[in-house]
Amino acid sequence: MELVKQILASFEGTLPNDSKTAAAIARGASAEEISACATEEGLHALAAALFEACEEGAEDGHLDSSARVTGAIAERLKEFRQGLPPACETARLIDAGAGLEEISEAAEKEGLNALASMLFEAEQEQGKDAG
Q1: pLDDT in tens, 3-44
Q2: In the chain, which ranges are continuous DSSP H helix?
Q3: Higher pLDDT among residues 112 and 54, named by residue
Q4: What CA–CA distance (Å, rounded) separates 56 from 125?
Q5: What is the C-alpha to C-alpha distance for residues 5 and 9, in angstroms, rounded to an integer?
Q6: Percent of the chain beyond pLDDT 70?
Q7: 71, 72, 41, 39: which is closest to 54 by C-alpha?
Q8: Measured in whole angstroms, how far is the alpha carbon of residue 39 from the centre of its chain?
Q9: Is it the case that residue 47 has pLDDT exceeding 70?
Q10: How many Cβ atoms are within 10 Å of 99's Cβ, its own excluded?
Q11: What does the alpha-carbon distance between residue 100 and residue 122 come to, in Å, rounded to a whole number?
């Protein structure tokens, strides 16, 4: 997918050579695997950008079903939640099962821009599916 290649190129010089993310890119791993490595290593801007690219279309060119998108969002929230302090509002909202809009607003207020951006995109996708 061309968009994924552009995203990876834009982050190319910022990744340490010994990172799992750099190794995944070098071996031509899927965008999902690279995104998972990036999330694990705290490279949330890269992970969010790849997530958004995957939301626009799967690598085979077919759009994700809403069930798959929902599952992907839940997985990303779980990954982000692991890195958040328990006292922050975003963490409390994720734990409580709050709606995407509410979590997104809290994330934005707390400066968690990659998470807020990802959730905004997810909200947009859900709006398209509902319409």
Answers
A1: 777 777 777 777 777 889 888 888 888 888 888 888 888 887
A2: 2-11, 20-26, 31-40, 44-56, 66-82, 89-96, 100-109, 113-130
A3: 112
A4: 9
A5: 6
A6: 79
A7: 72
A8: 8
A9: yes
A10: 11
A11: 8
Instruction: Read off the tokens for 81.
Output: 């939640």
- The answer to whether 88 and 28 have CB atoms below 8 angstroms apart is no
Assign 75 a pLDDT band (cuts: 50, 70, 90).
confident
For residue 131, what is the DSSP state? -
Write the DSSP symbol of residue 88. S
| Residue 94 contacts residue 80 (beta carbons within 8 Å) | yes
Q: Residue 120 corresponds to which tokens in the numbers above?
A: 């905004």
Separation between Cα atoms, residue 99 and residue 123, nearest integer Å: 10
Q: Is 48 in contact with 115 (CB distance < 8 Å)?
A: yes
Tell me how far CA of residue 129 lies from CA of 43, 111, 121, 123, in angstroms: 29, 28, 12, 10
Phi, psi of 63 (to 5 degrees): -70, 145
Q: Tell the burial category of 75 from Cβ atoms under 10 Å away from its Cβ (0-12, 13-18, 19+).
A: middle
